[in-house]
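Q: Joint fold for the lines below.
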Amino acid sequence: MTAMGDVRRRRIDELAARAGAVPEGEGGVSLTRSAFRRLRRNPVAIIGAVIVVVFLVVAAFAPLLAPRDPLAQSLLSQIRPGFIPGAQEGFPLGVDNLGRDLLSRLIWGSRQSLMIGVISTVLGVAVGMALGVLAGGLGGWVDTVVMRFVDIVLSIPSLLMAISISVLLGQNQYALMIAIAVTQVPIFARLLRGSMLAQRNSDYALAATALGVKKGRIVFGHVLPNSLSPVIVQGTLSLATAIIEAAALSFLGLGDPDLARPEWGAMLANAQAFLSVRPELAVYPALCIIVVALGFTLLGESLREALDPKFRR
Amino acid sequence: MTRRRTTRALAASAAALTAVTLSACASSDRDSAEGGEGGGESGGTLVFGAAGDPAMLDPAFGSDGETFRVSRQIFEGLLGNELGGTDPVPELATDWEVSEDGLEYTFSLQEGVKFHDGTDFNADAVCFNFDRWYNFEGLATSPSASYYYQAVFGGFASTPDTPSIYESCEAPDENTAVINLTQVTSKFPSALALPSFSIQSPTALEEYDADNLSGSEDSLTYSEYAMEHPVGTGPFKFDSWDRGNGEVTIVRNDDYWGEKAKLDEVIFRTISDGNTRRQELQAGSIDGYDFVAPADYDSLEGEGAQVLVRDPFNILYLGMNGGNVPDSGANPALKDVRVRQAIAHAIDRETIVNSLLPDGAEAATQFMPPTVDGWADDVTTYEYDVEKAKSLLAEAGATGTTLRFFYPTDVSRPYLPDPAAMFQVISQNLTDAGFTVQPTALPWNPDYLNAVQAGGADIHLLGWTGDYNDAYNFIGTFFAEASNNQASAEFGAFSAPEIFAALAEADQEPDPANRTEQYQEANRLIMDYLPGVPISHSPPALVVSERVEGLEPSPLTAEVFSTVSLND
Amino acid sequence: MLRFIVRRLLQLIPILLGLSVLLFAWLRALPGGPAQAALGERATPEAIARYNELFGLDEPILVQYLRFLGRAVRLDFGTSARTGRAVTTEFFERMPGTVELTVFALIFAVGVGIPLGYLAARRHGSWLDSTSVIGSLLGVAIPVFFLAYLLRLLFAVELGWLPGSGRQDVRMDATRITNFYVLDGLMTREWDAAWDAVLHLILPAIALGTIPLAIIVRITRASVLDVVNEDYVRTANAKGLAMSTVRRRHIIRNALLPVSTTIGLQAGLLLSGAVLTETVFAFGGVGSAIYDALFARDFALLQGFILMLAVVYVLVNLLVDISYGLLDPRVRAR
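A: Joint structure:
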């Protein structure tokens, strides 16, 4: 254990230990199934799930749902400096400062924004898990090296980290995703390691070792699958963070250079200049970001409750 | 870490001590920002929102608007600009004569002028400055340090390979300075109205080691003079520069030789974000700002602010890389004039002018505004015609060709208020005509400028605001021969000897009427060759609050604050 | 206790060393390397060679790193390309602003968050409870820069109640001693200057403090609810202790432990949010300098600022750990 960020790490570890603990006395009902049952009874979880599913469906079927081409500057000729026409027939939410249909852009934007959130989180989870498995599974000096590295990364405030990486990789959406992913790696690495350590000392793992099962099989066959639930919880919560962080990086001018491609963060940043002319241009994308982030947060929090044995009463 | 005026600080804390008893209730008076320390006889403080920090305050090394915005108030040149116009007028020189051969200029100087440090302004001071520029050495001779000197005079004493058109300066008497040139040029003497040729105090220049530049060409570190002690003859004196907060303070020069400034103090405060500038004006914590977004003209006026629109004296163009820059990876299709014509026909200038630019903007037919002598009404024009663009492209066998389109972020220019919007509209235009656009966004300074000026883009957005009323200042800057028979890398180092010859000839033509015709011819040649697409001339604006009087907008963006007063 | 602190301090060393390696590698990984980063894209090969020689960049990488480390230890990060001044000077001139902002944001978050969370828990299920739960969820979901814009638009522009940018009115000719403007005003008894600086801090502090506020409300509420159900509270109640005594002696004290952890956590995270907040409010702190440097490609400043901020962050975390050790003896034992 090193000094810095103890408190922060302790929180991650606590979550790992709690959510990863083996359920006792569940009478044969699997962890996932009982968790799912609790989830279905929780109205908060339902709201979160509905929000998430609706946006995922919108993103998936954007080409079918969007009434217009999000790139077509249909009403450009009606735009004047200081004047943007409002909602009208065919443009239910009005148009942006270049005469493009706002509704269609929001719909297509969900695709881009969710994609950035999902890809960066998946990347962060994958790399973080790999590091966590390495550290937790192998232990010893590998554990020390990996965890030191994670500590160092944790010692840089996340937005600064993302900025440094964007500077390194240039301004494009891949850099954006990688930047956000990197800030998430340490969280998942610690989470998985902590939860694996808890599992390794559990009765069934010890029993398996005593029965002569190989170390690799124990790790991948038993310990890892049982360590996943905190990762799922944190991953859901991280999706919300990733979407908000993408908006922040767009605002700082580190987003996708193809401004025509709709993305909520970029739309919101761009709309600041027209707040006095058409506040809706900022309000709608902001609402989308807030609602989606809220959806993932609600879902994540209820997952946490559902998977946490402490809440199983 | 006491950064601000220590002497004054003492006085202030003394004053504060005496005021302690009152301050509890008086404290709220100043925070509302409208009071200032004005009222009564004093002229008050004007706070102006600048878009960026000055690079430094020695105009000889300046080339950016923010440096000039401040230094213009502190310094004067032999010539100045007509208030609100583009023509040069006498300033520190009362008048001048040119010899028959056009090589010897005799300036009669204003008498009884003193620099802010008490040094006399006289012919020796003038020659000291000219000799200072001519004798720059080392880093000071790099284009990033002395851009304007090199643009007007060419080389230095220390650079025999690049000859200078400056020969010598003589001071036959106290109030007469004679400048000798080696070559006739249309740039002289109007160029002397540029802030870079301000006459600075020889005493201060020497005392604070003004020419001592360090660092590197692209990141210069300036002298103590340029950062802390700029000394001129102007209506305002430098007071302080709080770099942490981006505030430059200048105060009235009570010993000014001409009509004294009305304001006590002007503070230039850097607020890089345009929305923040607007909101700060609306909240009353600044009195004015530059680079008003066209979208805000009406709403600001509706709230009682005064939007001061300058006459358009600029050009926005789409630069094209003709593909002769080695290793630039430029699209070779752009060497084909039909592809360049297709681009020109693809761009919908009318919509751009109407929808993106403020009232009073016009579509451009050539690379200079119509008010400059040498503008031709019969150049080849390229009307918006998507079908024609498509067929030209097909003819050239380049349908679907990919163009790397560079645009700047985080900046607003007088000719380009919203680069992102402009990029998106032109990009859509080009896509409609059958091009494939691959966007690259870079921060304006230094990345974007470096990249496009080195020929790194296929096409890019850039523009120019004129420095004085002269055709060469526009088209010469863009298309004059840069080296070995090639134009600048920005335009893909194309070779067009007839354009280079026409420009050189016109520059050296002493007769104004002939010169105008020659520049018109140059414009026709340029628009036939089409090294880029001229897009628009846009009237940039600055805005001041209701209580500001007497600020005259300048098409050169060269506003002076000495005529300004506050009306509370 | 002293041994605990010394041990913690010693454990900082590998972290800081690792950090320096990371940032050293970062500057070298930039397109064109440090010379190009410092000289710009147009730099000639000769200029790059000269620069490399000057800064020893042609030497073995280990020597270069040690040299970098040597300078970093002396807080020498070179000169900012944008302002031409020493990076360290810039940092220490701007850090007080960020510290002031962070402290105010924290005061706001704690001052509002704990009472609100406590009240929400006491009136579990009331409208106050549900409002604060929903509010705390929204507070985390709203992008900071958008909130900052809204606050400024409403309170600075439309209502004109509070200043919306800067650290102090530029017309205020205040004396600077420490560059903590509020402190300076108090020290020099320029009350109006201090008050003006406070007014300038309000909106940015609210924008920056909203996320921690939301989290503190949630944690306080959850932790009070947890404690209320603990056996010892029930016992105390059963013993017939007055409700106010139970609250004071048992509930609040025990509930605050997890809350204090959260506060410590947030203090560090605020440094991150400061970049966005300071940018929107044109607040002359470290964050806005980082934003400007980003666009001016001022790598020397970025490198120095990120390293120094990370050190501050690590130190804040250390302080949190130490104070946590003071609160909870179990931590010390480990």
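Q: Anything notable?
A: Chain A is about 70% helix and 0% strand. The longest helix of chain A spans residues 102-138.
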